[in-house]
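Usage

Read records sequentially. Each one opens with the input sequence:
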Amino acid sequence: MAPCHAGPPQLFITTEHSPPAIMLEGERVAGYSSDKIHEIMARTGVRYSIDVLPWKRAYTSAVQRQDGCVYATTRTPEREALFKWVGPTDEGAWVLLGRADRNYQLSTLEDARGLRIGTYNGDVRDDYLRARGFTVDPAPNDMLNPQKLLLNRIDLWATGARPGGGVLEQNGWAGKIVPVLVFNRVKAYLACNRAVPDALIDRMNAALDAMNRDGTSRRIERKYDNWTPRKQADGDPAAAR
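and closes with the structure output:
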């Protein structure tokens, strides 16, 4: 994808398709998370490019490239030392979804121990559940998990909850798959390679702070309050990884 300012990019930013937070509109990467990134870069005068990739490739690029950043990245203790952080740009919840015709009786995440939980390969929720000894069944595409759930190949689906996603409705799963338990609340960031200069990270964080104070961040979010998904064949993974 072409740089978003003239000249070679200073930052090579990667992300994944995750509407309404991150999506392609023609040649432009849009969505409420993406629009915040565009605004941060405009305020700091940073030349940059954004590529939409599968999550594992997007994340690995930021780890390996000295000019790399990736969003929307969940900040965890395990990842803390891998990146320099700009944000939070978004907040979200992790939820277990289950079949509407089952009586799960889950009050805490511990109640799901022993159940097979569908996850997305390379996703932070997969790491989180594995580290705590839960039985996970990762898929290469998050949208395989609802199908596996309805076929009883997994007991639960661990994903991210976000307003406006419409994934269940657009695929005819509403009423068949329902939220069972919110098991974590997280914040998402633009995560940059450790080689990105501290002064640049500070400038980007200052720009985001100013956006939050002057109402720009909320205005960006409101643009997508009534976003309606279009039918799609590809996966629609959740926003914060």
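Summary fields computed downstream for this record:
- The two ends are 22 Å apart (CA to CA).
- Residues 198-214 form the longest helix (17 residues).
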